[in-house]
Amino acid sequence: MRIPFARSFRGLFSPARRMREDWDERARKNARYFIDCGHGGSDEEFWRSGPRDVEDFVLEGLAVSPEAEVLEIGCGMGRLLRPMSERVARATGVDISGEMIARATQALADRPNVRLLRTDGDLPETPDASLDLVYSFVVFQHVPSRAAVSRYLAEAARVLRAGGVLRFQADGRPRNPLEPVDTWRGVRYTAAALAAELSPLGLDVADVVGEGSQYMRFTARRRADGRAATSAVRILERAWDPEALEALLARLGRPAAADRPRIESGAATLRGLSDGFLAARAADSASAFVTAAYRTFLGREPDPEGLAFYAREIETGTPRAHVVDCFLGSAELDRKLRPPRLTSSSLSA
């Protein structure tokens, strides 16, 4: 499917206007597809994927109480907001597309604790220090302006309570200078650049997953600065499992004993150490490549649904590096390599 882009002259000079026009057009054309490309084929698939992504991305490694108040940046039709609203006291969704908000309003009409708002890049009608969790999933990678992402990050810091958590995904891949930036292929970041931007906002990085990949996931906590911290959301402690990490490195054909300290210290990334796998499997059929990826990254045989899905993605043009990014950013791999645990220090901000 061709990715539609609005071509208004004024929109070329206004990232917010361009984002709104393009995502309004995408919503009218096929909202499910553009929100969740992998599972947008039917209503049933679309809505069934929401609880899974809430569990595996939004709340992975977090303990969130039923009293929590949360906000989603880029809520679309409410695919994630619906299951989230079933777990918390109040859930707000904002989206730059009025078309998406209209669809979410209809889809979530039965959820009295949900509030939906159109945004121009801020978090409207949200008081300072009023939320426990702000999250965003596969949104910032479509934003064509760093200034726009910076505004969202600053707004998240403003509305979070002391000790509140910001969980978001950004594209961490190096950019080809010849590749255009638009409202589908947005800005990219290094982990260091994002950490440097968050700190002055009073946000301390607690965790980074998938550094260097398309689905780099950041978790940051709002600095307490002497204030009482919220207890409605907690970040579970994680530590590398040495045996699991060395087993993965060995499957990648890496010197496990030498590379393990580099991964643990942050001197190397699993994404960087995966290039050899991509090169070695470049000539494999789609099915053989996916099977090898399951065995290498997850240490198991592929399930039929996953094998069919990823093989179909490759056969229809998805780069193999993108599939590797999906494995590296998966909750299954993260839980194997760094099992989460609730400790006394998880409770402090």
Mean pLDDT: 89
Q: Give the spatial strand order of the biggest sheet.
A: 4-3-2-5-6-8-7
Stretches where pLDDT is under 50 for at least 5 consecutive residues are 1-13, 344-349
The first-to-last residue Cα distance is 46 Å
The CATH superfamily of the largest domain is Vaccinia Virus protein VP39
* Fraction in helix: 40-55%
Q: What kind of sheet is the major sheet?
A: 7 strands, mixed
Question: What is the rounded Rg?
Answer: 20 Å
Structure classification: alpha/beta
Shape: globular
Secondary structure tally: strands: 11
> How many structural domains can be distinguished in the coordinates?
2
- Helix-strand topology string: HHEEHEHEEHEHEEEEHHHHHHHE
CATH topology of the largest domain: Rossmann fold
CATH class of the largest domain reads Alpha Beta
Instruction: Examine the secondary-structure arrangement and name the CATH architecture of the largest domain.
Output: 3-Layer(aba) Sandwich
